[in-house]
Amino acid sequence: MARNPDGTDRDTRPVDPVDVAAAHLQRERREPPRVGVVLGSGLGAWATRLQQAESVPYGSIPHMPTPTVAGHSGKLWLGNLGTTRVACLEGRVHAYEGHAVERVVFGVRLLTALGCRSVLLTNAAGGIRADLTPGTLMLITDHLNLSGRNPLVGWSPDGHATFVDLTRAYDAELAASARAVASELGQTLAEGVYAGLLGPSYETPAEIRMLRTLGADAVGMSTVLEAIALRERAVRVGAISCITNVAAGLSPATLNHEEVQQTAAAARERFTALLDAWVQRAAALG
User: Fold this and answer.
1) Which helix (H) or strand (E) segment is 222 a member of?
2) What share of the chain is helix, strand, coil (3-state, %, to 5)?
3) Count of structural domains, the chain
4) Are 229 and 104 spatial neighbours (Cβ–Cβ below 8 Å)?
């Protein structure tokens, strides 16, 4: 511990950039959000449903990385959904954009620093299991982290290795509430294991066969690193994939990002209704 000129101790520990960003946002905002939402490719329109909302461009938030991928506008929304205070990331950054892993999870760590105790992650994914056709909504029950990255490597608040139990990476109560909401809305909500790969190239047919053998039901290029970072902070995690295409080799169609966005847009009404109710249930869990 270093000394100040007056002889008192000076804290020389490095300042966490996430805390700097949170302090910047909290300066004129007194009510903390209770639920965080991350909107994936083509799903960003949900953010406009928040009431008394303000949107803050990522570029105006200290240290916050900005997405470069179509379908990820790069805005943090703060507002209300009914009586629930919500913080919503409209878009995320990905490791395949060239970001270091701590940048990839910066947004979700910011949500926790702002006060969120539950975070609902969404993404667009390719369907591997036969019944996961485009437009299907799939509750993520577990994941395979095949990205070659982990946000806990070399990072912890106290400088020591962080060992986080991921046996229940996706919260059972949040999952139960998603099932209940889908049933009440008359929607079919599939369930499955999500494989997170680095990207940005889509998988080969051989890789899809491998993923199926490993137990993956859907595949994408996000979410798993965020879930790990959130569990390190003891935050409840729920996640839903919008299946936007059939994975490589399972259809004669050519894979492209435009199809991902179009299919997500077509599922918007069902997705919006489900997420509206799920956010309210998440808030009730505390």
Assistant:
1) none
2) 35, 25, 40
3) 1
4) no
pLDDT at 7 exceeding the cut of 70: no
Question: What digits encode the pLDDT tens for the residues 158-204?
Answer: 655 678 999 999 999 999 999 999 999 999 999 999 999 999 999 99
Q: Is 102 domain-assigned?
A: yes
User: What six digits make up the tokens of 123?
Assistant: 């993404």
Instruction: Write out the DSSP string of 70-99.
Output: TT---EEEEEEETTEEEEEEES---GGGT-
Alpha-carbon distances of 110 from 48, 100, 104, 113, 171, rounded to whole Å:
20, 16, 11, 5, 20
Report the 10 Å Cβ neighbour count for 157.
10
Structural domain including 141 reads 11-284
1 inside domain: no
Q: By three-state DSSP, how is residue 35 classified?
A: strand
Q: What is the CATH number of the domain that holds 192?
A: 3.40.50.1580
Q: Which two tokens stand for residue 281?
A: 């249930």
pTM, two decimal places:
0.91
HSE-CB at 17 with a 13 A cutoff on CA atoms is: 12
Residue ranges of alpha helices (H) inside the chain are: 17-26, 101-104, 106-114, 172-185, 205-214, 224-232, 257-266, 268-284
DSSP helix/strand/coil, 118: strand
Strand partners, 197: 146
Digit-coded pLDDT (tens) for 82-93: 999 999 999 999
Question: Which residues have a catalytic role annotated?
Answer: 41, 72, 94, 96-97, 124, 221-222, 245, 257
* Residue 3 domain-assigned (yes or no): no
